[in-house]
Design a protein that fits this description.
Length: 239
Amino acid sequence: MEGVRGGNAAPGEFRRSQNWIGPAGSTLADATYVPPPPSEMMDCLGNWEMFLQGSGSFPELIQCAILHAQFEAIHPFLDGNGRIGRLLITLFLIERGRLSQPLLYLSAYIEAHRQEYYDLLQRISTEGDWSSWFHYFLHGVEETCQHAVRQAGALMELREQLHREMRSKPKAAALIDPLFVNPYMTVSRAAELLNVSLPTARQAIQTLEESGILQEVTGRAWGKTYVESKILSLIENSI
């Protein structure tokens, strides 16, 4: 929460005042949704935690969908509840051994279907309509997973292509895999990765730049930074 919206709203502390959800300028009287008051919030979180630790009778994705919806309903922080609630999906599935790495993050799907997301969470509270929420959540998981598979395949294909292009230039080729960890490169980073002098590292980067793999992005004479834009584009490509 440092340096972002909500960074001054008692980050990391459970709220001690009543909050509400609604359009800009709305008040408690005309809010779309009012979470539990602080006097009841900790009991709600206690029940939520017991459900988190147990519920072996539920399929884990269904349990995860319930946990997320109930966390958003409790809204235990003054700000950042949506961000934390989305992170909890990933962390829960890692803790249950369903993910080995944090590779499932539903933010892009939720952002693309934001109004439906809000409407369905509201319908849980007003109508008890869990079924529609489960369909939405499971479809989001499916779509996000399919996108991740396509994205990983495209990155692997690009990696093989770059290695083929640089197979006769070993020092430049040795920088390709690090670019898939971080698509930005500097001469000092290249020198450290290759364990070579700065002039030798600069030459390797120049080879990649001349081949069109790296592009300089600072416009400076010194302290230049280069990027592999194809990798960056594939990483940033959302649903």
